[in-house]
Amino acid sequence: MSTAFNRRNWIKSSALMAGAFTLGNPFEFTQPAHAHTTKVPPVTAPPWDFGNMKARLTSNENPFGPSPQAQKVMIDVIKDSWMYAKAGKDELKKMIADMWGVSEDYVVLGAGSTELLMAAAQLYGHKGNKILAADLTYMSLIRRACNDYGAELVTVPLSTDYDYDFNRMSDQVRDDINLVYICNPNNPSGRLTDTAALKSFCAEASKKKPIFIDEAYIDYQKDAADKSMISLVKEGKDVIVARTFSKVHAMAGLRIGYCIATPQNIEKLMLYATDGNALSRPSAYGAIETLKDGAFMDYSRQMNAESKAMLYKTLTDAGYEYIPSDTNFVLFPIRMEGDRFVMEMMKRGVGLKRIHYRDQHFCRVSIGTKENMETFAEAFSELS
Ligand SMILES: Cc1ncc(COP(=O)(O)O)c(C=O)c1O
């Protein structure tokens, strides 16, 4: 089986493969006829043993950074850390605004994009409110809005090839929806959706309801700026775009993120966000520096692509299928119960996540260094 298949071939071969699965077939599911309101399960994680983890492939972190240039600046500014980050965060905000060709009132900074996802959850997550999203997607904003603030989740299933089904989603942008959440590329499927299709969905839907686009992984595309929905914000649409420095920039531990939205929407988010007051001084200056380091971005993407190719080969050689990924993680169906798989891999020093979706157990594996991927391959060979 070739690793270089396109999506269509992947779906075809997956359907053939599916007969071999013992725990159901992820590729021949029947889609529920309608969107439905659903309960949001709390987060559960198997008891990872971080101390003994040889390959930390749990959280879509990027082990290829941070940018050496940014590291140097951060080390230099440590001595000034007795001061708050005011000047640094102001400079960072201006730089981000300039980068996107907007004024600063289109930008809100956060300690990681999580801070801004939480702000949006608080803004839109009142009792009686409804959030529309795909099933499957990233649940952080949704979980907070629904489980902590009393909103309800309305889901539309992904299409059979794990992409968004914009026709169905459009039908569900009803009067009683308060926010539409879209993650692109999507986590955990790893798929980037078609830019034109997303744009046309957002252009129409945003006439009725606000849309939150989570672009945490979009910088894995070299032409991310063209694929971003920030262009819609600039046209004045009711669209909020979230970005992070945690992925391609490899700064997850520094906690830096931002949203671009119209000044009216930024003002609303600011009710619940610190707008950079929660950034540390090294984080603010590190973020400024990494934005200048285009060579590091290229390196980061390249290293990710090389390690991902290794993972694809491991899976293909073992006769496994996977969802071709546009990100730094890969989702693939496994042949045992998810918790057991994750615990067995953990015993072998590999940290992973598992997902149960449409009666199939999946593993989500983050892309690590080549050595990490070798550790994964060795452990996986004992279980596959
Ligand atoms: C889709 C998505 N959005 C947002 C985040 C939050 O990232 P951060 O808070 O580090 O910016 C993550 C983290 O993994 C993610 O996967």
N- and C-termini, Cα separation: 16 Å
Number of helices: 14
Based on CA inertia axes, which overall geometry fits?
globular
Taking pLDDT < 50 over at least 5 consecutive residues as the criterion, the unreliable ranges are 1-33
* Sequence of strands across the biggest β-sheet: 1-5-4-6-7-8-9-3
Q: Report the sheet with the most strands, covering strand number, pairing sense and barrel closure.
A: 8 strands, mixed
Task: Let me know the CATH homologous superfamily of the largest domain.
Answer: Type I PLP-dependent aspartate aminotransferase-like (Major domain)
Which cofactor or ligand species appear? pyridoxal-5'-phosphate
Which band does the percent of strand residues land in? 15-25%
> Could you spell the SSE succession in H and E letters?
HEEHHEHEHEHEHEHHEEHHHEHEEEH
Question: Which CATH C-level class of the largest domain is it?
Answer: Alpha Beta
Number of domains: 2
CATH topology of the largest domain: Aspartate Aminotransferase, domain 2
Helicity level: 25-40%
In CATH, the architecture of the largest domain is 3-Layer(aba) Sandwich
Q: Report the count of strand segments.
A: 13
